[in-house]
Amino acid sequence: MANICETCGKGRLVGNKVSHSNIKTKRVQRPNLQRVKALIDGSPQRIRVCTRCLRSGKVTKVA
User: Fold this and answer.
1) Which residue has the higher pLDDT, 40 or 16?
2) Closest Cα to residue 36, out of 46, 21, 27?
3) Going along the chain, which residue ranges are E strands?
4) Cβ atoms 28, 13 nearer than 8 A
5) CA-to-CA distance for 10 and 5, rounded, in angstroms?
6) Which of 10, 6, 12, 13 is nearest to 49 (CA)?
7) Cα separation of 60 and 25, whole Å?
8) What is the CATH code of the structural domain delimited by 1-63?
9) Considering Cα of 32, then 35, then 37, then 43, what sign does the dihedral take?
10) How far out from the chain centre does Cα 13 lie?
11) More confidently predicted of 19 and 40
């Protein structure tokens, strides 16, 4: 299962971790995904959504 938000498509960011001695190693920043039961086309489904989409109201949660 990919680490991607199902509404906005936000995925991982890859960059360098830079130490004090300026040695660079790869690092990964992953989005904060939550498993949420949401309404999709009128039926409740479990999807993985980032917290930015939850907070902005792009996803309607099922009570």
Assistant:
1) 16
2) 46
3) 13-18, 24-29, 33-40, 43-50
4) yes
5) 5
6) 6
7) 39
8) 2.30.170.40
9) positive
10) 11
11) 19
Separation of alpha carbons 48 and 2, rounded Å: 10
Is pLDDT of 30 > 70?
A: yes
Report yes or no on whether pTM surpasses 0.85: no
Task: Quote the pLDDT of residue 34.
Answer: 96
The residues near 33 (Cβ < 8 Å, ≥ 6 apart) are 3, 5, 48, 49, 50, 51
Domain range list for the chain? 1-63
- Are the CB atoms for 60 and 53 separated by under 8 Å? no
Burial string for 4-22 (b: 16+ CB within 10 Å, else e) reads ebbbeebeeeeeeeeeeee
